[in-house]
Amino acid sequence: MSGHFKKKSQAKVEIPTASMPDIVFMLLIFFMVTTVLREVTIQVQSRLPKAESVQKIEQKRLVSYIYAGPIKTGEDAGKVAIQIDDALVELTTIRLIMYQKLIEQPRLIVSLRIDEIVEMGQVTDIQQELRVAGTYRINYSTKRQLPG
């Protein structure tokens, strides 16, 4: 009876690895092209307020951020300031900067990242400057409030 069962040969099947460097190189190039690096150094503190309902913006390339909060370091540390891109700006220059951005990107969304301690009067002043610039698509950045 033992003649009916034959042992199978133990031949090793190797996976061809000749094209492995090409695949790795293509993946590396793909991730280098599609990755967007953070371009802005945030100079103001922004502890965002909490909200019960939040909605995520899908097209981040259409968003321009305005930060308002206390300055993190330097001799003016603790003083409330406004930051657009990498620069601290005065309230009156918001309209010029945002108008230029709106001309470059007509579907621009302005996201306000306002610290919890910034007074509502200052937020209203920023909104008025944005209104003068014609940027009506405004988003308020918040953190999701956990239930309970």
Offer a concise description of the structure.
With 148 residues, the protein is of the alpha/beta class.
Helix and strand arrangement:
Layout: H1 20-34, E1 50-51, E2 63-70, E3 80-84, E4 87-89, H2 94-104, E5 109-114, H3 120-133, E6 138-140, E7 143-144
Parallel strand pairs: 1-7, 2-5, 5-6
Antiparallel strand pairs: 2-3, 3-4
What report would you give on this structure?
With 148 residues, the chain is of the alpha/beta class. It has a domain at 50-144. The protein contains three helices and seven strands; from the N terminus they run αββββαβαββ. It has helices at residues 20-34, 94-104, 120-133; strands at residues 50-51, 63-70, 80-84, 87-89, 109-114, 138-140, 143-144. A five-stranded mixed beta sheet has the order 4-3-2-5-6, with helices on one face. Strands 1-7 form a two-stranded parallel sheet. α3 (120-133) links the parallel β5 (109-114) and β6. α2 (94-104) packs across α3. The chain is elongated, with a radius of gyration of 27 Å. The N and C termini lie far apart (72 Å). 11% of the residues are buried.
